[in-house]
Amino acid sequence: MRYGQSVRRGGASLLASVVLLAFAGRASAHVKYVTPGSDPIAVAEFLANALSDPLNLAVLLGGAASVVALLVGYLAVRPARRDVTVFRETMESYRDLLPWLLRLSMGLPLVGAGFAGYFFSPVVQPAAPTFVRLFGVTVGFLLLFGFGTRIVATVGLVSYLVGLAFEPALFLAVEYVPGFLAIALTGGGRPSADHAVSRMAADDGTVYSRIDPFYRAVAVPFVKRVQPFASLVPLVLRVGVGISFVYLGVAQKIMNPGEALSVVAKYNLTAVVPVSAELWVVGAGLTEALVGVLLVAGAFTRAASLTAFALFTTTLFGLPDDPVLAHVTLFGLVSALLVTGAGPFSVDEWLRYWAARRDSDAAATTTRRPRTDT
């Protein structure tokens, strides 16, 4: 119970920190997309000014201590176990819809990028965008339609990586890497054109099964090659999305304070929560970095995903001139993590094993306890 008391004592500090950091998310996601321009600021000078303020330091340390206390307290007390179990089972029951969710998450922003004339990220707009438009619209619609899904995703992944080699700014859209990989591993699912074609090709009574130029010759061999790795989809998603969050938090906020501060000033965010602009930037950066680290480690994955979901929601509705489509991929992949959970090679997997073993040992001890007559 000492953990529970610690959690309650840190509640007030956590509430203040969460309110600040949740609103900070409105200024945090993809600073490059909404920045009005600014003069560069030395990172060391910025951090020294931000952390030398006793109030800023108290809020940051209080928030960190409260988060740690909540996590430790949760592991010790395990409140609402049945609620957590039902939520987890409900999310896992949507597993058959995962391919469709992934295709929507990738297809919609690609179609939008094609019509807008940018290559994956709004900060990369070629001078002659004809090919970029055709690429985005074609790949996006094929993913939405679910035709040749695995191959299209592979083409999209290779195209992104080639573009990244020539334009480092594309790292701002690095979430496309886990998205394409996950689609290549899961396929089109249902509903999709691939599913309809496979059903017709598998039925010997159809005309298509006699002329099939695609399914048996291309799709089946490809599926056989990637199928052994399908169980790694949760790992691919959380590591890829986690890296994206760490990059956005550290590189785009804390290491680039000039632009981040200009966004805070542009939207007068210090009027929403009356703290310094420096605290807004540091708080937003640390929040995104923490979410990213939790996802990479696979620790409290669904809780971290819900936190990210809340940050994206406030961003989408809070910044009027933010390009919404630029967030759809991350928004969708975070939603997919709610379905998959952490998967293999994760802290959550180890915690679940440890909890099951502890419960098993407790049950065995109770069974072996000798009876006493009264």
TrEMBL record:
Keyword Cell membrane: yes
Membrane topology note: Multi-pass membrane protein
UniProt xrefs under Pfam families: DoxX
Positions of transmembrane segments: 57-77, 97-120, 229-251, 289-312, 324-345
Keywords: Cell membrane, Membrane, Transmembrane, Transmembrane helix
Main location (coarse class): membrane
Subcellular location field: Cell membrane
InterPro entries: DoxX, DoxX-like_oxidoreductase
GO cellular component assignments: plasma membrane
PANTHER family: INNER MEMBRANE PROTEIN YPHA-RELATED, OXIDOREDUCTASE CATD-RELATED
Protein name: Uncharacterized membrane protein YphA, DoxX/SURF4 family
Organism in which the protein naturally occurs: Halopelagius inordinatus
Upper classification of the organism: Archaea, Methanobacteriati, Methanobacteriota, Stenosarchaea group, Halobacteria
